[in-house]
Amino acid sequence: MTLFRMSTTRFLLPCLLAVGYCLFPDAAWGCPPGMFQTGSRDFIACAPIPGYDQGGDSSGDESSSSRVPTIYSTPIQPSYMAAVTHIDTSSFWVSRAHWTADSANKRALAACHAAMGKGCVIADTVYGYGPFGVMIDAMGLRWIKSGADVPKGTPESIQYQALALQCLKSSFGCEFEEVIYQGALPLDAAPGSDFVTDIFPRYGVERHHWALLARPEGTAPAASQNKAWLISGSQNSAEARKSVLDRCRADSGVSCAIDAYVANGVLVRFIDAKGKAGWTSAVTKRVVEPIGSYRRKKPKIDPASVAARVERQCLVKPCKVIATYDAATPRMQVVDDVR
């Protein structure tokens, strides 16, 4: 999912994994026995409760861990599930209960391409009984990865460590969002029979707005030194990236690279105590606790807010914000950028 190479320090903020999943029948409001509600904010689905209907009778020789998983009280067999994402939207496409990985990948990709055109990528494909973990970052981008390659019983906080690292490598404010489990492929199903279930966006997709900053990679002529090229307002990250890099290269006469970017937020320019300029990505949403909350009486500021992000990036304190550029406003401009 990483499309931008960044020359500044990677964003490595702590990631709090909210993994208190309640896997009880009571929580599966609207789903049949043995199932719980899952899916995405665009699509609600029902998924099997792990271990449900695997019996409380321990008198037999067979351990519960070796029994065939069931769904709707019907034994199921392992199958393939694929997840597809596109960097220009927070929506995703998951297709489940396939006989082959190729079938799962093609179906999810086809649905994404129909909605987004080019640029869809396979986030992960898993064989077995799932699941996928889903994380969301401060900009609203979603990250998906399988947790199936770890021993049974491993805590989710460890299961999805790779997912958290993947998100934090290129983003910030990453939080665990949900788990998506496999669909039902009955154990006695005829080979090739269709039991596919999909989790696709239900009401269309919403594209992100992007802001990207490019800087010369080499030593530019004097007229182009200490300058940066900024583009924003685009909902196509690939086109925006090409446009700003082409403009930077044409003006400076040297190759350029993306130095900072943000989706659905702001690019912030600041200077430190020595007058050195820096850039960071931030979001401006103010998070307020619900009325009547007994945990906190005062509003809290999102850790990805402008002030918090600048504080983290500032090496020689204090730092002062010079300008902010929101991602939604269309612009292509050259910015004086003393470094």
| Low-pLDDT ranges | 5-30, 36-45, 47-66, 291-299
SS-derived structural category: alpha+beta
- Number of helical segments with 4 or more residues: 5
Q: What composes the largest sheet?
A: 4 strands, antiparallel
Beta-strand share of residues: 25-35%
Number of strands: 18
The span between the termini is 30 Å
Based on CA inertia axes, which overall geometry fits?
elongated
Helix content: 10-25%
Q: Can you tell me about this structure?
A:
- With 339 residues, the chain is an alpha+beta fold.
- It contains 5 helices and 18 strands.
- Strand 15 and strand 16 form a beta hairpin.
- The chain is elongated and about 70 Å long.
- About 19% of the residues have low confidence.
Record keyword descriptors for this entry.
single chain, 339 residues, alpha+beta, 4-stranded antiparallel β-sheet, 5 helices, 16% helix
In brief:
The protein has 339 residues and is α+β, with helices and mostly antiparallel strands. The chain has helices at 101-116, 156-159, 161-170, 237-252, 306-313, and strands at residues 35-39, 44-48, 70-71, 74-75, 79-85, 92-98, 121-128, 132-136, 142-146, 175-180, 197-199, 210-216, 227-234, 256-263, 266-271, 277-282, 320-326, 331-336.
